[in-house]
UniProtKB/TrEMBL annotation:
Protein name (Swiss-Prot/TrEMBL): Anthranilate phosphoribosyltransferase
Pfam families membership: Glycos_transf_3 (PF00591)
GO biological process: one example: L-tryptophan biosynthetic process
Leader sequence segment: none
Keyword vocabulary terms for this entry: Amino-acid biosynthesis, Aromatic amino acid biosynthesis, Glycosyltransferase, Transferase, Tryptophan biosynthesis
InterPro entries: Anthranilate_Pribosyl_Tfrase, Glycosyl_Trfase_fam3, Nuc_phospho_transferase
GO MF assignments: anthranilate phosphoribosyltransferase activity
Species whose genome carries this gene: Vibrio parahaemolyticus
Length: 76
């Protein structure tokens, strides 16, 4: 999802304040995992070298520190 949003020119490195404003203004925001979750930040380089889906594709949304009431997940 981050690749798609990035290709649309959407800023994935929004500050927490700007992200909160997006939620307040339009009711939705994208939280780029490496920016908001320390564990993902360290696993990301390893994952990218594997060039295949990993357990992190499933775990990422499940360990979301924001604990949203609703999540939109893609399937593969």
């Amino acid at each position: 999802s981050s690749d798609l949003l990035d290709s649309f020119g959407i800023n994935l490195a929004m500050s927490a304040e700007d992200t909160r404003k997006a939620v307040d203004d339009i009711g939705v925001a994208f939280l780029f995992a490496p920016q908001y979750h320390g564990g993902v930040r360290h696993a990301m380089p390893v994952r990218q070298t594997m060039k295949t889906r990993t357990i992190f594709n499933i775990l990422g949304p499940l360990i979301n520190p924001a604990r949203p009431n609703i999540e939109l997940m893609g399937v593969y």
